[in-house]
Design brief:
The complex is a heterotrimer of chains A (157), B (930) and C (289). Helices cover 29% and strands 17% of the residues of chain A. Chain A is an alpha+beta fold and 157 residues long. With 289 residues, chain C is an alpha+beta fold. Chain C folds into 3 domains: 7-56, 2-Layer Sandwich (Uridine Diphospho-n-acetylenolpyruvylglucosamine Reductase, domain 2); 60-173, Uridine Diphospho-n-acetylenolpyruvylglucosamine Reductase, domain 3 (2-Layer Sandwich), CATH 3.30.465; 179-288, Enolase-like, domain 1 (2-Layer Sandwich). Chain C is globular and about 60 Å long. Classes of the chains: A alpha+beta (157), B alpha+beta (930), C alpha+beta (289). Chain A: Residues 4-80 form the 2Fe-2S ferredoxin-type domain. Chain A: Keywords: 2Fe-2S, Iron, Iron-sulfur, Metal-binding, Oxidoreductase. Chain A: Pfam families: Fer2, Fer2_2.
């Protein structure tokens, strides 16, 4: 079983680690990096709770190995709010619209929305809605998530 | 069963405090700040020094004997700390319990002992330095089985071998009457219209997004700290304490954030118990986080049921009589053997039905055991509402009209249902009135007719229901809820409440209630509900109780505290208590010259200078109150939905969904609507896509989220909410519960809409889930019939119910319980020893009840007493040979005469207890002394 | 659900990767995007001794056109492909198909070559490669060969690739102007594998069909080329075309089965309708243009 030295940036700070080849990125982020906001809901890429941004793109962290993130910039839900606690616009919209209940799927949804609604890289409204089909929420019936996404992306999808 | 006794019920609470308007307001949730930023603490987020990880080795077969277990390779793997089997845990005495804290009807092993009873049955556990190694080692365990043919389905259970060889039968629980009531049968046979629905409902996985999980940290003192993903730390601490025979105070259950539960995590079960025991054995903190494969194959599941509901209507479509025959798959190890009496209680809980009878059984099978799922009795609404629509089509009535003719309205109450449910304030008919103001049914029917001409199939479905919320009748663990509110010496307000959120947002809603009643700013109240060591007992989230029971506790506690504050402030400020007003986190004395003091000012005196308090007033500023809500609080609703079914592909598109409910006074409408929406999404999944399925060998066939399909954002429409039908309940605050309703009323609303859309193709075959494949088979099958029968297309083809019923009479030889009624009476002349001390177990719908008793005879006269919970119940009866008969009148949980028949065989007694509408319960006894 | 142990390698060149595969003697698995492989590893349904990660091999990336063919580097990410101007101009059907693969989040990682190499019978890209007459360039230490897409698939996840071989390019012929694309996918939820899928292209010249490539997905153990329907279409006057009859021929080549989500009968019934409608719409659209 191979082990590997990796170096990456997580939420703006450098992280060095030695990892086994088989360690998933989600387990690495939760364990070594302490980003327990990365939630592992299914470990087979369907539920979307573990979604993080790797080099700005939303990806399933359970479907990547930690070693594959070597040299990458990773952003997790912990990395979005301002230092003073001001919520990121995506977080604020979800809060205003009651877009969460148990909160377990929420970090993944936040990351997908954040990756697609950034001011400098805003996706079309239908693309944002389509991307949300990659997240399972068992609590809310998606009502507040949909409202928040509309508010953030515009459009009537 | 549940006359709302007028205990403690203030219909209107006095405005002690100046209303700050928090109750009823759509406030942003306190929980969200941490959950949105990844700062929540779910059980897997807890890390302890030296903690080891657990993985289970599970049975790959549904039924068989364990011949040997080889752990050697697993134990040798580097990084493995221990590999344990049932033998290693045998040193601990554990009494597994149901949610109601009753003993199971069959032994439930923590780990499998000599045999396995379902695929996924835990056989061994690996404790290793990380989960990866633990899974490696679990894969190295070799178990040799003697495989047997499993009992998988309800049909298998009736004819197959015993799942639990020591049980009399595969009947896990039974209620109702085995023998048909001839009068009722005659009414059904002779009524102008007999309508029947008969169907099976698929098994459902609760599927909270966070799976089960536990971190158990034993301490040298013998105390345990258990971090648990659960529905309430208090009840779970009590469960562990009772199961382990430990003081509850020695067990601290912490459950900070929980990622959904929906009934799955109401109580600990085998894996959680195994982990706690192993941590005690190994004296190390252990963590087990269920993975999704385990969750979909080994966590207890719900809803696999069958029902045959027959209903007689008169010529006007009014209900005459009804009978239900019901079966529930309990799996191998249910969390409480169950025949689901609530299905029968609420089937006709809101309708003018004169006569009802039923027979309900729960069955053991070689599948994962039964647990609760949101609205566990929901099948009643599905069966009833689907049947009412069928009846409407058969009788030629509008589906709305048939409901109006039979629903109990507010002005019809109080009244009592055939099941003894006393109704005082249900309002499904009034909810339906509001609903119909929101939907232009006539316009829809015109649109529907026009669409059908174009080959487009639109459908409109209705359903109404009532939901028992905060029900506690006869259920000890649900009787009360506690709130402890404290103005701390610092002046801060903190509350410890026995509610618990797995998404419910009770930290917010309880905070709203307390802030309003106390007259403090919402942000100044800190609510804690996550730690069993902090407050008093309460069941947490169960049975849609938290707004009613928890909210009531918060109101009462806050009001008592306000009273003390007013008396204290009035005394100190030298005004009358009535002149004291609380608001905006300040205390004001009204008068010529307004005086203002802060909570801090009062707290300084209450804690630091108690000598300044009025004569007789205790020091401090804190109140603990235990609220006993009414025995049951009813929520009502009516829903409608409009669908379009694509007749070419069988796909269902939900175009509109309108809800109208009466959940009383709302604490936070956004939270209420969130509960409705979440339940409806689950209903949509249940009707259209979710299914836990097994092959003939009992292997689960939907083991990932690719195959166990949950609704996505594209499957759930926007819901419209209407609260106009709401009236305050008699509970404190006027609240009604709303947790389960969407999951109960959703399925029939959607099924009725689909059935309406596809009415041109004949009565919809009820095969759940209604996948595109099944719907298209229905459409195509009917098309072929239509083409053969008549050239006219899309003409309705109603199927005569009599033909349907006739085809369903295939009889099966059922593996029924051995009759407990006497077979061969012993001749009266033979001396039978009746007199003496006995211990008894009665198998009630709530689980087995154990008690002791004394019986004595005088000729053929029997006298006796049962002793249960320091309460005595005396009875008299008759003796004939070894045959005993006696009646016992009880008043709790309701007034009922229990009719016992038993026979004595040496020191053993067997018999049954007829419990009126609840059917029969098995009684066994054993002589203690003569 | 944690992967079993393996040795992980991230070669920088195709040669290194081929050598690793050769050295592993069949015990190695390639990972590209990993969006299907990672679940198989987590479920321990796949337990390789060696995992060879292709993501660091620059030669496997990129899209280029030459001599009437489009060459797609196998580790081109699916979302990169959707955004790629060259691919949009040269292979609109592939772009349409890729948009239906998985979800936005998996397309950020998943690759074109990974999907084609895996051979999931209900997946969009293998069938599209078959329909368009694509081939894959395959390398090993033993040499290079081309495999036609319609000879690549033997059964679910079973391909003609030897254990020591890897796909180094996907080579897709560019269809002439006058070509219309046909793509239909019936799936229960967005991102699910197809219950019924149809993908293909038809070239029309002066009201007559000159070329047709059509394949099914989710309709049998592999992507299925609708050979009889293609033959019947080629040379046909559009005006004289009986879409229903062609659909019958197309269905005749399928071999669907019952599974948890739909019966074989469902797939055939819906397939017939989808085919008829898709073909009619594609041709009407062309006629109107």
């Amino acid at each position: 079983m191979s082990t590997h030295q990796i170096q990456l940036t997580i939420n703006g700070r450098p992280q060095h680690a030695t990892v086994e080849g088989r360690l998933t990125l989600s387990d690495f982020l939760r364990g070594d990096a302490g980003c327990t906001g990365v939630h592992v809901g299914c470990e087979h890429g369907v539920c979307g709770a573990c979604t993080v941004m790797v080099d700005g793109n939303a990806v399933r962290s359970c479907l990547m190995l930690a070693v594959q993130a070597d040299g990458c910039t990773v952003t997790t839900v912990e990395g979005l709010a301002a230092e003073d606690g001001t919520l990121h616009p995506v977080q604020q919209a979800l809060r205003d619209e009651h877009g969460l209940q148990c909160g377990f799927c929420t970090p993944g949804i936040v990351m997908t929305l954040a990756s697609l609604t950034a001011a400098d890289n805003k996706a079309a409204p239908d693309k944002v809605m389509n991307a949300l089909s990659g997240h399972i929420c068992r609590c809310t019936g998606y009502q507040g998530i949909r409202r928040a996404a509309r508010k953030l992306a515009g459009g009537a999808a | 069963m549940n006359a709302p006794e007028m205990l403690d019920t203030k219909t209107q609470t006095q405005a002690h405090a100046q209303a700050t308007g928090y109750i009823g307001k759509r406030m942003a949730r306190t929980e969200d700040a941490r959950l949105l930023t990844g700062r929540g603490v779910y059980v897997d987020d807890v890390g302890l020094p030296g903690a080891l990880q657990v993985a289970f080795h599970r049975s790959p077969i549904a039924r068989g004997r364990i011949k040997s277990i080889d752990l050697s390779a697993a134990r040798q793997l580097p990084g493995v700390y221990a590999v344990l089997t049932a033998d290693d845990l045998a040193r601990f005495k554990v009494d597994m319990l149901s949610f109601f804290l009753a003993a199971p009807v069959v032994p439930v092993p923590v780990l499998a002992t000599d045999c396995v009873r379902h695929v996924g049955d835990p056989v061994a556990m690996v404790v290793a330095q990380d989960r990866y190694i633990a899974e490696d080692a679990a894969g190295l365990i070799v178990v040799d089985y003697d495989e047997e043919d499993p009992v998988v389905t309800l049909a298998d259970a009736k004819t197959g071998p015993l799942v639990h060889p020591d049980a009399d039968s595969n009947v896990a629980a039974a209620t109702g009457n085995e023998d048909p009531d001839e009068d009722l049968e005659a009414q059904l046979a002779n009524a102008p219209h007999l309508v029947t629905v008969e169907f099976e409902h698929q098994r459902i996985s609760q599927s909270p997004m966070e799976t089960r999980g536990v971190v158990s940290a034993p301490q040298g003192s013998g105390e345990l700290t258990i971090y648990l993903s659960c529905q309430g730390p208090q009840l779970n601490a009590r469960w562990f304490a009772q199961a382990f025979g430990m003081p509850q105070t020695a067990i601290r259950v912490i459950s900070k954030d929980v990622g959904g539960s929906f009934g799955l995590k109401g109580q600990p079960w085998r894996e959680e118990v195994a982990v706690v025991l192993a941590s005690m054995l190994l004296k190390r903190p252990l963590k087990w986080i269920e993975d999704r494969l385990e969750n979909l194959t080994s966590a207890n599941q719900a809803r696999e049921q069958e029902i045959k509901l027959r209903v007689a209507f008169d010529a006007d479509g009014k209900l005459v009589a009804s009978h239900a025959d019901y079966g529930l798959n309990n799996g191998a190890y249910p969390q409480g053997a169950d025949s689901n009496i609530a299905v029968m209680m609420f089937l006709w809980g809101a309708h003018k039905l004169p006569v009802f009878d039923f027979h309900a059984r729960g069955w053991f099978t070689n599948t994962v055991g039964l647990a609760a799922y949101r609205g566990p009795w929901a099948l009643e609404s599905l069966a009833r509402e689907v049947l009412l629509d069928r009846a409407a089509r058969q009788i030629g009535l509008d589906p709305i009209e048939i409901r109006r003719r039979n629903l109990i309205r507010r002005e019809d109450q109080p009244c009592t249902t055939p099941m003894g449910l006393e109704l005082t304030d249900i309002s499904p008919a009034e909810c339906l009135d509001v609903l119909l103001e929101k939907i232009d049914v006539a316009a829809f029917r015109a649109e529907q007719a026009e669409a059908r001409k174009q080959g487009r199939y639109l459908g409109l479905g209705f359903a109404t229901y009532i939901e028992p919320t905060a029900g506690s009748t006869g259920i000890g663990v649900l009787m009360s809820e506690s709130a402890h509110i404290r103005i701390e010496p610092t002046g801060k307000v903190s509350a410890v409440v026995s509610t618990h959120s797995q998404g419910h947002g009770t930290q917010t809603t309880m905070g709203q209630v307390i802030a309003e009643r106390l007259g403090v700013r919402f942000e100044d109240v800190a609510v804690y509900e996550d730690d069993s060591s902090r407050g008093g007992y309460g069941s947490g989230a169960y049975g849609s109780r938290q707004a009613v029971a928890g909210g009531g506790a918060c109101i009462r506690a806050a009001d008592l505290l306000v009273d003390k504050i007013k008396r204290m402030a009035a005394y100190l400020l030298k005004v009358e208590p009535d002149a004291i007003v609380l608001g905006d986190s300040m205390i004001r004395a009204l008068g010529d010259k307004e005086q203002v003091v802060s909570f801090r000012d009062l707290a300084d005196i209450a804690y630091g200078e108690p000598e300044r308090l009025p004569e007789g007033m205790d020091a401090g500023l804190e109140i603990q109150y235990r609220y006993r809500p009414p025995p049951i609080t009813m929520t009502s609703a009516a829903h409608a939905c409009i669908v379009e079914v694509d007749a070419d592909t069988g796909f269902v598109k939900i175009k509109r969904w309108v809800t109208s409910e009466d959940c009383g006074n709302m604490i936070n409408p956004a939270v209420v609507e969130g509960q409705i929406a979440g339940g409806l999404a689950q209903a949509i999944g249940e009707v259209l896509m979710e299914e836990v399925s097994f092959d003939a060998r009992g292997n689960p066939t939907a083991v990932t989220y690719k195959d166990y399909m949950l609704p996505t954002i594209f499957d759930v429409p926007e819901f419209e909410y209407h609260h106009e039908a709401s009236r305050p309940s008699i509970a404190e605050g006027g609240f009604r519960g709303v947790g389960e309703g969407g999951c109960i009323i959703g399925p029939p609303t959607l099924v009725n809409a689909i059935a309406d859309a596809l009415a041109p193709f004949g009565e919809l075959k009820l095969e759940f889930p209604l996948t595109p494949s099944r719907l298209l088979a229905h459409i195509e099958g009917r098309r072929e019939i239509a083409e053969r029968a008549a050239p006219a297309e899309s003409a309705p083809l109603p199927v005569p119910e009599s033909a349907r019923a006739a085809s369903e009479s295939a009889s099966t030889v059922e593996n029924l319980p051995a009759p407990s009624a006497p077979q061969e009476p012993v001749a009266a002349s033979t001396a039978v020893q009746v007199d003496g001390e006995w211990k008894f177990v009665l198998s009630t719908p709530m689980g087995p009840q154990a008690f002791t008793g004394r019986m004595s005879t005088d000729g053929d006269q029997l006298t006796g007493v049962f002793i249960m919970n320091m309460d005595e119940a005396h009875f008299t009866g008759t003796v004939s040979g070894n045959q005993l008969k006696w009646d016992l009148k009880v008043t709790k949980p309701m007034k009922i005469t229990l009719k016992y028949e038993a026979q004595i065989d040496g020191d053993k007694l067997t018999g049954k207890c007829k419990m009126g509408i609840f059917g029969s319960a098995k009684l066994v006894g054993e002589r203690v002394s003569t | 659900m944690k992967p079993a142990p393996f040795d992980y390698y991230a070669p920088a060149t195709i040669e290194e990767a081929c050598q690793l595969l050769s050295d592993a003697g069949g015990g190695a698995t390639l990972v590209a995007g990993g969006q299907t492989l990672m679940p198989l590893l987590a479920l321990r349904m796949s337990q390789p001794f060696v995992l060879v990660d292709l993501n660091g091999i620059k030669a496997l990336k990129g899209i280029s056109r030459q001599a009437g063919r489009t060459r797609i580097g196998p580790i081109t990410r699916q979302n990169e492909a959707i955004a790629d101007a060259t691919l949009n101009a040269a292979q609109p059907l592939i772009v349409t198909a890729v948009k239906h693969v998985g979800h936005h989040q998996t397309r950020n990682r998943g690759t074109i070559g990974g999907s084609i190499a895996l051979g999931e019978p209900a997946a969009e890209l293998p069938a599209t490669a078959v329909a368009l007459g694509a081939s894959v360039e395959v390398r090993s230490t033993r040499g290079t060969r081309q495999i036609k897409a319609d000879e690549l698939y033997f059964g679910p996840y079973a391909t003609a690739l030897e254990p020591d071989e890897m796909i180094t390019a996907i080579d897709v012929p560019e269809w002439p102007s006058g070509t219309v694309s046909v793509f239909r996918e019936i799936a229960q939820r967005p991102g699910d594998f197809a219950l019924v899928g149809l993908t293909g292209a038809v070239t029309i010249d002066n009201g007559r069909i000159t070329r047709a490539g059509i394949a099914w997905f989710g309709m049998g153990p592999t992507p299925i080329k609708a050979r009889q329907a293609e033959s019947a279409l080629i040379g046909q006057e559009i005006a004289a075309l009986d879409a229903k009859a062609i659909a019958e021929l197309a269905i005749a080549d399928t071999a669907p089965f019952d599974d948890l989500h739909a019966t074989a009968e469902y797939r055939r019934t819906v397939g017939r309708r989808v085919f008829t409608r898709a073909l009619s719409e594609a041709l009407d659209l062309r006629a109107a243009a």
